[in-house]
Structure formats: structure tokens, C-alpha cells
């Protein structure tokens, strides 16, 4: 650049070779720089080389016009490397080019008398370069420095053409054009793409300043031409004022549009944020931050090769929640989630419901599941309290993703029913048991109406005399010609709620038999669901009245847990029955809460000592219970007596009544008739 400037003050004999040397060196440097940079730069450098060659070899001046389209094409090509150009930038380029056209006409063509020729061609081609350069840099975003340098070089080229048209030497400016192209090509940012060019064009002070200058200058320019009449200044300035007002007005409209666009963009961003938040809530548990059931189900629909699914259910969480409140319960769930995260790093953890969690892990998750169970056992310190909770877990190695949740849930149920705080792996027998249970549940709904249920009775004898004093009614079910064990269908009836209609059927049947056997009483088991029925006592008394059986002919058996749960309502119901002579027995005493305070306060007449005390010869405990019952004026029935030795021990300890296989298995009512007849015969 200093050499190009020096050529302007040197004599022609020295300036010409210096100019050719500088331009040749610049072309060579630029050609080397853009050898691998793309065709756009190559077109511009080729135009520089062509001008250098044409300037060094005398020839027609029209040939100097040929490289202009190459430069314009290269500039347009470069402007498109950053993506599509915003329409606003194209309009800007057109406005500024139009203003430049007026100046070109006045400076170059008008002095020549408006004749078409080489001057007009230079003006048109220079305007083409101006439009292309403005398109390259424009007002959108920040163009790379190399593009700014290239635009400056175009300005030097156009300026040289204007200087040449005015009759002055232009080779210094044309040299600066070539040197500027070389400098831009050598710049490290020449390969960088412009950014932020395709969005909406915002109103900026720079843009307004450019348009204001054009609005003022373009209308006045014709009046400043040599020999123009003085009166031409008046409409020129008026036109400039109007044009300036139009610029201001358009700027106001553009500002309003810009603010509206910003508001719309903000609204769109808010909507997208809300959508993202809703999607996050749908896929995550708000309390623990784990995945939701929906998110886990979605993950399970994908390919799950060599993966395992583990379900966890907290043991005793409901009691903690009830005793300490939901706030403590929620804090406990968060702590549990944290321990599960530590045990299953890199796995998908989800909270399925209140205290049920799921883990989808790669590979065999058995070892990690056992570590998790161990990690959940230590105490939790929450709100100044020390809480203890364990978990039951069911795991399935995924073969069919659609059945993974069901299979893992079956394994979890097995873990809860076989002792809790353990891991059970899914096996096909669990599915078979589920299908059988489902079939039994469907058949059980019609067992009463189809007459498939029947009652068997096991006698209760007086140990001192061997006389039958009562008979316990035990339900039996024959389905499809086979006898279904009570251990299978009674829990199923409890779970499905069928135990209520079945219980009322059993009570009616037992009271009908009691009418024939009285004063021998019948004992009937009552479930918690049945005891909570509206006007339970009234219905029982109505059944007794219909069967013409006094209250002394019925003993109702309930478990300890039933007595303790909702104790006030239970006490009122049982007191009403006892006022009519019905006796109340606590079944399986010693296996539940065994709370003496409840035993003393609740309306109880009979204790049924669990058979485990008899079978294991817990003589000291049995004796203590018998003494307790005697103090509380309760009758004790020892269950599960199977041999004479057991009966002898119980007799020595003072047990009044007993039942078991030693005396009789559960038998149909007709067999009880025979046993009662035998008792009468012995008595006579």
C-alpha cells in the first residue's frame, strides 16, 4: 500500500513500472492464498490478473470492461456462502446503488452530454460492483474482516474509475484495488462465513444515518451541478426535506414492526418454554425428579437387549406416612430416590406411584438390586426423627418389553407375600399362578349363585369331658369338580371384595345349622370388610331372628388387627351384638399385636390360642395366656390339637376348650349331627 501511494507522486517513467510490479506481486500472493479457498475468490483474483495484463499491454479500452462481471459474480458468490441474504439487505443495496447511479450520471455521463458509450458502461458496471459489495457486507450481523477489506478494495476501484472519468491519473487507486484484494485474500478470516444475515433486518442508528444522508443528498445533487439554475436549489431542498421525513416515518414504522416482532419472539419463546416444562412434568416425577411411569413406558417400547427391569416397593411406608405426616413421608421418598441413584448409576430410574420405584438397567441388574436393598436398610434421619424402612423388589430380565412391567410386578408381589425385604426374580410359574388366580377370581364371582360353596364344621370340645360345645364353620369351594384349598381362594376373595357376599352366605348357612344344634354354638369367621359394612350388627341379628336362633348360639371370630383398627366403631358394633347374647372370639391370638390394653378394653369373650403354641410346646407362654384369660374372665380355645399328649398338657395347664384333628377334621353338617348324637348317648 505504501508503494501504491508512492506511485501517485513519482514521475510516470518510474510510477508505471512500480505500479505493474506491485499489482503483479499482489495478484501472485492472492492467487496462492485462494488456491484452495473456493471459486468465488478465484473469480475476483482472476479479474485482478486480467486487469494487470490489459494495463501492461496496449489495446482497446473496451477490453478493460470484461473483468467487471467476474468481480461482481465473485462478490455475489461470497455473499451467498453465509446462507440466504435477508430481503431487507437487498433493498438496502438497491437504494444505495440507486443513489450512486445519480451521482455517476451527473459526474460521468452528464458532462459528456448524456451520450451513451464507454462512460455509461463504466457507470453501469461500477454500480453493479457497488450493489454486490453492499450485498456482501450490508447491515445484517457483523461481516468478517476479509469481506470489509474486499469492500474497501471495491471502493478504491470505483473511485479510480471516477477519477479516470474526470481526467486525472487513476492507477494509484486501481493499484490499491489489487493490493486490497490480496490483503483480503491473505487475511485469516477470508474463509469465514458471515453470520446473522438471514434474519429480519433491525432498525439501527447506522442504517438511519446512511438513509438520512441519501435522503438529503440525492435530491439536492442535481441542483449542485455546474451551470444548474439557482432556482433548482429550492425544489431540491424541498425534496430533500420530504425524503428525510419519509425516512423518519419509515423508521418509526420499522421500529413498531421491530417491537412487534420482539413481542412475538418473546411469546414464542414463552410458549416453547411452557411446552418444554409440560413435557418435563409429563416425563418426570415432581417430587423426586426421577422419570415418570409414562417416560419409563416409552423407554420400554424401544429395543431392550440384555436389559433388566427392577421394581421396588417400600415395606411399611404407609404406617410412616400416617404416623408422621405426608411432609415427612415425602422427605423419606426423596432420600430413598437418592440411595437408589447411588446404587444404579447410568440406569433409568422412575417413580411409578406413591412408594413404588422402577429401575431399567443394562445387563443383569441382580447384583445392583441386592446392593440397593442393602442401601435402603440403614436408618433415615428426617426432621429430627430416626426412621427405618426396607423394600421388597421384583426383577425380570427383559425378553419381551411389552410384558416387562407385568412380569416384574408379579415378582414384586411374590417378594411381598413371602416375607418382604427381599428380591424375587421373575419365573414363568409366577405368570401361570397369575393366570390361574385370574381364572379363579372370575369363577369365584359366581360360586355362591352356582351353589359351589359349602360349609364344613370342626367341633370344639370341652377338655375335661370331651363334650362338643361348639362347631367352627369353615368354607369350602368345589370348582370344576375339584376342591380349591382355602389358602388359595380366601385371600383372593379378600382382595376382590367377594369375601363380603360370601361371608353373609356363610353366616346364614351356619345359623340355619345352629337352629338344629343349639345349645351347641357355631363359630363363624368375619372379615374386616364385612365388619365395616353398614349396620353389620343389625344384619347379624336379623339372620339370627330369621333362623330362630338365640344369640348364645353364635360366636363371631375376628382377628386382633380387625379389633384394633377403628377400635371405637368396632367396639360399638360388637357391644350391640353381645347385648343380645352373641359372643366374640379373638382368632389366632398371639400372632398379631397381642396388645393387653386392647384386650382389656374391647368386648371379647373367647380367646382362640394359635396352633403354633400347641405344636411347639410353648408351655410357659400357653400357661401365661391361660392365666391371663382366667383373670379377664375369658374362655380359651386351643387350636391345632393333634394328639393325646398335647391334650393332656393343655388340660393340666387349665385350658377349658380345644379343637383339632385329634377330635375331628372339618366335616359336613351331617357328620356333626352324628357326633352330637354320640355325645348324647354317652351322657345318658
TrEMBL record:
Q: Does the keyword Transmembrane apply?
A: yes
Domain GGDEF residues, every copy: 305-428
Membrane-spanning segments: 40-68, 89-108, 120-139, 146-165, 208-225, 237-258
**Which top-level group of life is the source organism from?**
Bacteria
Can you give the residue ranges of the EAL domain?
Answer: 437-680
Keyword Transmembrane helix listed:
yes
Q: Which UniProt keywords apply?
A: Membrane, Transmembrane, Transmembrane helix
Q: What is this protein called?
A: Diguanylate cyclase (GGDEF) domain-containing protein
Query: What is the protein's species of origin?
Result: Virgisporangium aurantiacum
Amino acid at each position: 500500500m505504501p508503494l501504491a501511494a508512492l506511485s501517485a507522486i513519482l514521475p510516470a517513467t518510474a510510477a508505471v513500472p512500480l505500479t505493474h510490479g506491485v499489482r503483479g506481486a499482489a495478484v501472485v500472493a492472492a492467487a496462492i492464498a485462494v488456491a484452495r479457498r473456493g471459486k468465488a475468490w478465484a473469480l475476483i483474483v482472476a479479474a485482478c490478473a486480467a486487469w494487470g495484463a490489459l494495463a501492461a499491454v496496449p489495446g482497446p479500452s473496451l477490453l478493460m470492461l470484461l473483468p467487471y462481471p467476474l468481480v461482481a459474480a465473485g462478490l455475489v458468490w461470497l455473499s451467498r456462502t453465509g446462507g440466504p441474504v435477508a430481503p431487507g439487505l437487498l433493498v438496502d443495496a438497491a437504494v444505495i446503488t440507486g443513489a450512486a447511479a445519480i451521482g455517476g450520471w451527473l459526474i460521468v455521463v452528464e458532462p459528456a452530454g448524456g451520450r451513451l458509450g464507454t462512460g455509461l458502461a463504466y457507470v453501469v458496471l461500477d454500480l453493479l460492483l457497488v450493489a454486490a459489495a453492499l450485498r456482501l457486507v450490508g447491515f445484517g450481523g457483523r461481516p468478517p474482516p476479509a469481506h470489509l477489506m474486499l469492500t474497501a478494495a471495491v471502493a478504491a476501484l470505483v473511485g479510480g474509475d471516477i477519477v479516470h472519468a474526470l481526467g486525472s491519473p487513476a492507477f494509484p487507486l486501481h493499484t490499491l484495488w489489487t493490493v486490497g484484494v490480496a490483503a483480503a485474500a491473505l487475511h485469516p478470516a477470508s474463509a469465514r462465513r458471515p453470520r446473522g444475515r438471514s434474519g429480519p433486518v433491525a432498525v439501527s442508528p447506522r442504517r438511519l444515518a446512511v438513509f438520512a444522508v441519501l435522503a438529503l443528498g440525492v435530491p439536492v445533487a442535481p441542483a449542485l451541478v455546474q451551470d444548474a439554475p439557482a432556482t433548482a436549489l429550492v425544489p431540491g431542498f424541498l425534496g430533500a426535506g420530504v425524503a428525510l421525513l419519509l425516512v423518519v416515518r419509515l423508521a418509526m414504522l420499522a421500529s413498531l414492526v421491530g417491537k412487534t416482532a420482539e413481542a412475538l419472539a418473546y411469546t414464542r419463546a414463552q410458549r416453547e418454554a411452557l411446552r418444554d416444562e409440560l413435557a418435563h412434568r409429563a416425563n418426570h416425577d415432581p417430587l423426586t425428579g426421577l422419570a415418570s411411569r409414562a417416560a419409563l413406558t416409552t423407554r420400554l417400547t424401544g429395543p431392550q437387549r440384555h436389559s433388566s427391569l427392577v421394581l421396588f416397593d417400600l415395606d411399611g411406608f404407609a404406617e410412616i406416612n400416617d404416623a408422621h405426616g405426608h411432609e415427612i413421608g415425602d422427605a423419606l421418598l426423596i432420600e430413598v430416590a437418592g440411595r437408589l441413584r447411588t446404587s444404579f448409576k447410568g440406569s433409568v430410574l422412575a417413580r411409578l406411584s406413591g412408594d413404588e420405584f422402577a429401575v431399567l438397567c443394562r445387563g443383569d441388574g441382580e447384583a445392583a438390586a441386592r446392593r440397593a436393598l442393602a442401601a435402603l436398610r440403614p436408618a433415615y434421619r428426617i426432621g429430627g426423627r430416626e426412621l427405618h424402612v426396607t423394600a421388597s423388589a421384583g426383577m425380570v430380565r427383559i425378553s419381551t418389553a411389552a410384558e416387562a412391567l407385568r412380569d416384574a410386578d408379579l415378582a414384586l408381589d411374590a417378594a411381598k407375600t413371602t416375607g418382604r425385604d427381599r428380591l424375587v426374580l421373575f419365573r414363568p410359574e409366577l405368570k401361570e399362578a397369575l393366570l390361574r388366580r385370574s381364572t379363579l377370581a372370575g369363577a369365584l364371582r359366581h360360586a355362591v349363585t352356582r351353589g359351589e360353596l359349602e360349609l364344613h364344621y370342626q367341633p370344639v370340645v370341652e377338655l375335661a369331658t370331651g363334650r362338643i360345645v361348639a362347631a367352627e364353620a369353615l368354607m369350602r369351594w368345589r370348582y370344576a369338580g375339584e376342591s380349591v384349598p382355602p389358602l388359595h381362594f380366601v385371600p383372593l376373595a379378600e382382595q376382590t371384595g367377594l369375601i363380603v357376599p360370601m361371608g353373609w352366605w356363610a353366616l346364614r348357612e351356619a345359623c340355619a345349622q345352629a337352629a338344629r344344634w343349639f345349645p351347641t354354638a357355631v363359630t363363624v369367621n368375619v372379615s374386616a370388610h364385612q365388619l365395616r359394612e353398614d349396620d353389620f350388627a343389625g344384619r347379624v341379628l336379623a339372620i339370627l331372628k330369621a333362623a330362630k336362633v338365640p344369640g348364645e348360639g353364635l360366636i363371631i371370630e375376628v382377628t386382633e388387627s380387625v379389633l384394633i383398627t377403628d377400635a371405637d366403631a368396632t367396639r360399638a358394633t360388637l357391644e350391640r351384638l353381645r347385648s343380645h347374647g352373641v359372643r366374640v372370639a379373638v382368632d389366632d391370638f398371639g400372632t398379631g399385636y397381642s396388645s393387653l390394653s386392647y384386650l382389656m378394653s374391647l368386648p371379647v369373650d373367647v380367646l382362640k390360642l394359635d396352633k403354633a403354641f400347641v405344636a411347639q410346646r410353648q408351655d410357659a407362654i400357653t400357661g401365661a395366656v391361660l392365666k391371663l384369660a382366667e383373670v379377664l374372665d375369658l374362655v380359651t380355645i386351643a387350636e391345632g390339637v393333634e394328639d393325646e399328649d398335647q391334650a393332656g398338657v393343655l388340660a393340666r395347664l387349665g385350658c377349658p376348650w380345644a379343637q383339632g384333628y385329634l377330635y375331628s377334621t372339618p366335616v359336613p353338617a351331617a357328620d356333626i349331627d352324628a357326633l352330637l348324637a354320640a355325645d348324647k348317648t354317652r351322657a345318658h
